[in-house]
Amino acid sequence: MGAQGQRNNSSPSPQVKKAGLSEAQLGQLLVTPAALLILIIAFLPVLVAFWLSLHQYNLRFATAGRPFIGLANYARALSDGRLWNSLKVTSIFLVVTVSAELVLGMIFALVINRSFRGRGLVRTAVLVPWALTTVVMARMWAWIYNSEYGIFNAILKWLGVIERNIPWVADADFALIAAIVADVWKTTPFMALLLLAGLQTIPAELHEAAMVDGATWWQRFWQVVIPMLKPTILVSLLFRSLDAARVFDLLFVLTGGGPGFATESLAVYTYRTLMVNLDFGYGSALSVITFAYVMLISLFYIRVLGTQTQR
Amino acid sequence: MRKYGTLLLIAVVLAIAAWALWGPDRGREDNLGDRGQQQQTQQPVTITFYAGKDLTQANNKLVESFNKSQDRIRVSLQEMPPSTTDQHDKYVSVLAAGSSDIDVMAADIPWAPEFASAGWLLPLDDRIEDREDFFEGSFLGATYMGKLYAIPWTLAAGVLYYRTDLLEEAGLEPPETFDELISIAKKLQTPDRYGYVWQGRQYEGLVCNWLEIFWGMGGKLMDDRNQLVADPEIVAASMQWMQDLIHKHGITPSSVTTWQENESQAVFAEGRAVFFRAWPGNFEYINNPATSKVAGKVGIIPMVHAPGQKSAATLGTWNLAISKFSKHPDEAWEFIKYALGMEGQKIKSLNSGNPPSRKSVYNDPEIKQKYPHFDDYFAVFEGALPRPVTPVYPEMSVNVMQPNIFAVINRTKTAQQAANDMLAGMRQILEGAAQNR
Q: What span, in angstroms and rounded, lies between the C-alpha atoms of B280 and B381?
């Protein structure tokens, strides 16, 4: 690394200077295409959405035009009970799924990190749920919870827990739990895989040294594995949280946001505002709010991650 | 060399920047150019017909037969997702972009006012010639601000299916009133057989189910000028009636709150229900020995109503409409004219089992022979009513009506509370729309 850096420093500079560019300028020039691309792909849509959100703009009323209304859409959002409800649903979903996936994923990772016969098979098997398309997986769970033909009711009936079929996803309290269970089932393998990669970077000597010092398995887990795994854990938490904050497909297919609005996430609400109500002004405001929500989560993790790497 | 390398790099960067700024536009022009050329060289004009996925192949046969009937116009069929909601959202994204991809589209009844208000549909008043051969209610649903924006293609309206064998065995006449339905259902249900199944999931079908009860109790939702005139008492009573089916009379399982048409149809076809509220389209399945255990034992009657009131079915027409962005509106109309003519209607009907929109087709011997039960539908269609005809209907349905009706049958709100909430919500949406106009 060092040597390479030096060579870069010494040789091209004079040449570049002849072309009238300092090294910093050349560097900027080199990142221009990438920066431009990121600007066009990532920031332009956000800016357009923000601009739209400052207008009253409903596609259904072609004659009403597109008057500029300042921050009125955001004022409306503040007093919109359905938005607050969707923020609540999204946050519950995020916190519960991500923590459950972290704990379960850790257990899976620890298990498949050990060597035992048929480990390859187990590792593959664990990955199957993650490989399924979310929509397919959601349909599958919809069948599991189906009141007449679902296996969930069948098992409960067989066990004698219930007598009559219960429509689970129509139950306001259970619908979100049902969605959370499905999501944990699907995404735990992803978490396990990330954590497994982290586990494998922990040098065996550390374990050996700890064992020589007489540490129990439990002590080794907390004193060696967790500290060494912290950066990996934080990155996987970031990945999963960002995904969970934008959850759409699972809820849309499994419960449709119902019963009532009991499982309507921020993304589902935004989608409905845009595509059902065709209210592009307010819908854009909701998109910007979603963006801010996701941004806040990212900032939180990046702060935590930042202090990690400084140490 | 190095110097040239740097220059080359700068050139590449500029080229990429130029492409990013002007590239997409130039690409669009190229596309248009291509299309223009195609029109000049290939003689027949190609138009695209968008319609939901059709397992019966009736749409393919219709298009094929039209293409064979003349050589000026080629219709190509573009299949949409089977779910009505998905179709709606897809149409919206294509039409909102002002794309000319769609020429003719099959549109669910509430979309006519919605898309018309958005300025996406071509008015068809000047083109249609024989209005009187269609059912009046079906035209109401396709009219917005006094103009006709779509033509009914196939008709559907809520009907009540019942088990002829069970009723005959018990020596009972088919019910006409709400109370008769409940008492017969109670008599004939067993632990393995529900009294009455319908669609209670929180979705569009729930509103259709509810409206029929509401109308059957003499309710009126909106007047001709789209003002809300509903009596909160009747709204609450009709919601309560649906809840009672499940929780008081016990003739409907609580699972109905997760059912759409397919789930309730499967239960009825297995012989596990006495009464089944659905659409004409369900008849093929429940009366076919290959898919149903009750084939040949299915009777059709209009929805029940309160004593002294009339039964009114919710219309579920599918319309044909022309996109305003179509480059070939005249050719598009030629196709619609064919699809709505005797021949086109028969192809669609005989292959799909969907009742035709044109009255005279019901007298056709071939139709009469294959579908003797269409006569039962004729009476239902004449009394059938559209859902509120306003561009904000989808919003009212999804945001206010579905959640409130569902809250009652799922017992999370009292009927009184839900009725008040629903009407207040509808009023708010209608007022917002009036301000926008």
A: 11
Q: Tens digits of per-residue pLDDT, A134-156?
A: 999 999 998 898 877 889 988 99
Smallest Cα distance from A60 to chain B, Å:
4
Here the tokens at position B123 are 């008015």
8 Å CB contact of A258 and B403: yes
Q: Residue B274: pLDDT above 80? A: yes
H-helix segments, A132-213: 134-145, 151-159, 172-199, 204-212
Residue A61 pLDDT > 90: no
Q: Which two tokens stand for residue A83?
A: 């938005």
User: Do residues B50 and B102 make contact, with C-beta atoms less than 8 angstroms apart?
Assistant: yes
Return the structure tokens found at B139: 């035209």
The token duo for B255 is: 């699972």
| 3-class DSSP assignment, residue B299 | strand
Pairing of β B318-322 and β B104-108: antiparallel
In chain B, the residue whose alpha carbon lies closest to the alpha carbon of A261 is B403
Say if residues A299 and A245 touch (Cβ distance below 8 Å).
no
pLDDT digits (tens, 9 = 90+) for B174-216: 999 999 999 999 999 999 999 999 999 888 899 999 999 999 9
CB contact under 8 A, B118 and A29: no
- Which 3 state secondary structure label does DSSP give B26? helix
Tell me the two tokens of residue A304.
């935590």
Closest CB to B406: pick one of A166, A258, A272: A258
CB contact under 8 A, A258 and B394: no
CB < 8 Å to B14, chain A: none
Taking the CA of residue B392 and the nearest CA in chain A, the distance in Å comes to 7
What one-character DSSP code corresponds to residue B174?
A: P
- pLDDT interval class at B255 (50, 70, 90): confident
Q: Tokens representing A68?
A: 């500029």
* The token pair that represents B421 in the structure block: 């909430």
CA B301 to chain centroid, in Å, comes to 21
DSSP one-letter string for B415-435 = HHHHHHHHHHHHHHHHHHHHH
Whether residue B121 is predicted with pLDDT greater than 90 in this model: the reply is yes
DSSP summary character for residue A168: G
Distance CA A105, CA A102 (A): 5
Map residue A247 onto helix, strand or coil.
Answer: coil
Chain B residues within 8 A of A26 when measuring between CB atoms = 6
- Among B61, B58, B108, residue whose Cα is nearest residue B353: B58
